[in-house]
Amino acid sequence: MKSQRVVFKLGTGVVMDQVGGLARTRLTRFLSDVKRVWEEGREVVIVSSGAVGAGRLQLGWKHKLSLEEKQACAAVGQGHLISFYQEVLASLGIVSAQLLLTARELAHRTTYLNLRKTFETLLKARVIPIVNENDPVSTSELAMRHQDQSFGDNDKLSALVSAKIMADLLVILTQVDGIYAKDPSVSSSQVLPIPSISNLHELSKVKVGTQSQTGRGGARTKLEAARIASISGVKVIVASGLKEGIVQDLFYTERHEGTHILPQVKLVGGRKTWIGFSCGFSGVLKVNEGAKRAMTERNSSLLPVGVVGVEGDFSRGQVVSIQDEGAQEIGRGIVLFHRSEVEKIMGSRSEKVREILGVDIEEVVHRDDLVLFGDNHEQ
Hints:
single chain; Carbamate kinase; Archaeosine Trna-guanine Transglycosylase, Chain: A, domain 4; five-stranded mixed beta sheet; 15 helices; globular
């Protein structure tokens, strides 16, 4: 495999063992295999879950955790998790670094751009960054706001990191052998993972199964991660991290492991990646069928006449979700008006905006600030 910049994402079920502790033997073996990849000159980033699980074991909590208790577990466990990675990698002659991220860092364009500079500097210095969501800070905020702002057991985070650093490959290591057309846990016959997915239309037809038992993620978050990475020109492999030698198999044998989601021609630039995937959203614009067709079929801006409803308390310049009247998300964009202003002009033709608000802006969301989520992202 010729990929030069690789992101490995390890799910909670891979990082933790069956009794709730760190799967030290499995992780040590994985890191030893990563060393070979790294020694060949490739740049490596590891996105690791497991902080909450590690902290839970340290605290001896076996009951169902409240939100605040999960945050406490993450605070305790994160130190143990990064210490393990640093100790093993140091024994292999590799310097590592810790990066803890929240949706807030990705929501602000300046900090979003600064992250790439940090990654580039670390990778140039031959450091392996270990990335995780900063759960003690972010979980409460995310739970109270839109569900979409959760990274989903780091699946989405790994895709965003891959897109931001322009990785060639994202390897999502999970408890199952790949992505399935049917949920293998409820099928009476043997179900094999889908070997490859070549385009977004095929990806959109995959039916998701249940959520992971050990983490926040599941098939749905992995599909979303695959979509983000693929649109950004990154190949994705979803494979079993429980299988011994999986890294060796992927990089040094002809054996086909997991589900391979092929990269699309890069259809969104860095700025549109940020708008569409990185920062959640501050509110919702409901649009009628005419506006939906204009945006998706003619690459038009969103005009006031097409807006039929608003949700949330958003301000000018913030990212909003654009949904049809059936609550299906069409895309996201940077809104040019405050909520109160949109309420005054929605349903009005563009020439009435100046009369109502006294400004010359005709669009609610300009097409240059709009990312659509259809099968064809021709932005």
